[in-house]
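Worked example 3 (structure in, sequence out).
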């Protein structure tokens, strides 16, 4: 038995048939964009007191410096740094202060 191939209008899948595919040639985000993305992630994270954390970036490499109050805060800060677009490595220069 051969399965019948059915076609559906694009609108069924939530696709605008009049839309065109757009691509950007941006490549890697700038260091400032990466820092801002990480800073916003820190602010959204209620479990992280990130006011005193410093972020530096260079060619996709991020360094997070400062003091956190627990291993959980450290893990959240590192995860937020990794989640930013264009990040290729994260250097943990955090100190845990109990």
């Amino acid at each position: 038995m051969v399965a019948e191939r059915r076609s559906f209008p694009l609108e069924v899948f939530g696709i605008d048939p009049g839309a065109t595919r757009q691509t950007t040639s941006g490549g890697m985000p700038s260091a400032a964009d990466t820092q801002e993305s990480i800073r916003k992630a820190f602010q959204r994270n209620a479990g992280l007191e990130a006011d005193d954390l410093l972020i530096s970036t260079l060619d996709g490499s991020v360094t997070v410096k400062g003091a956190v109050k627990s291993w959980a805060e450290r893990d959240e800060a590192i995860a937020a740094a990794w989640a930013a677009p264009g990040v290729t490595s994260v250097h943990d220069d955090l100190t845990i202060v109990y």
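Notes: The longest strand covers residues 61-68. Residues 6 and 12 are 13 Å apart (CA to CA).
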